Hints:
With about 140 residues, the chain is mostly helical.
Amino acid sequence: MSQRFRAPNTLRDRSALLGVTPPPSGRSSPYGQSSYEPSGHRYADDLENQNDEALEGLSAKVKLLKDITIGIGNEVRESTVQLSQMNDAFSETGGILAGTFRRMNNMAERQGCRWLWYIVFLILVFWFFIIVWWIRR
């Protein structure tokens, strides 16, 4: 039975069936064959050169990405230090303002309502100077 399905030798030879096949580059085109015929060693050198060029391009892109990420890391570190310093400064300012308001409330309790009249008088003088400045401008 195996003899009945045995194909002749011409059908087993791939080049006889398909003709000259392009090199196994992973690409095929239905638009015809190129005029370039691979010639062994030279074709391998061309492929290696293409691979080297692609590798150089990828290396440049990786270096660029590395530089960008290093820059981002440096910026984050600097921003963290700056935010920490601002936090310390705001905490210090909050302490100073809390002490000032505490002293002002102590003064107000000792003097009664007299301090309120001083503040109203200062606000009226301030507005008077602003209005005079606005008119003379």
